[in-house]
Design brief:
Blueprint lengths: L4 H19 L6 E6 L2 E7 L2 H4 L6 H13 L7 E7 L3 H10 L3 E6 L24 E4 L3 H15 L7
Parallel strand pairs: 3-4, 4-5
Antiparallel strand pairs: 1-2, 1-3
Amino acid sequence: MSFSLDDERFMREALDLARQAGSLGEVPVGAVVVRDGAIIGRGFNQPILRHDPTAHAEVMALRDAGLNVANYRLPACTLYVTLEPCAMCSGAIFHARIGRVVFGAADLKTGVAGSVTDLYAIGQINHHASAEGGLLADECASMLSSFFAARRGRTLVA
């Protein structure tokens, strides 16, 4: 995959949001929604803080974008997220009519943009977004690995 400098800039914004999540004890995942080169929505994981199993980074960014543009449909937008979306988040992405998803690290346990399955390739689904993974994947994965190692009381050796 070939990513642009803008793609990298927006993923770095998502990484900053992931750091915020981690500093609050949440799994460090961040997301931004971009339209016409501008961020219109930001989100990071907050299910623990909000007592809400749907408060994943992607959903929070979609909610923020919808409020900011006063529309639940977000066509011609790209969602950048530090971890491959799960089924719930992908459903929200499809319903929002996001055109493109760019993710960092693959999620081998719950990722549905190619890791566990590929919802983005199922033709029967009404709306399709393209999904591209691997942007700043090492940095995204390292943040997650460090977070979980710290939770288990271990430190990672570089």
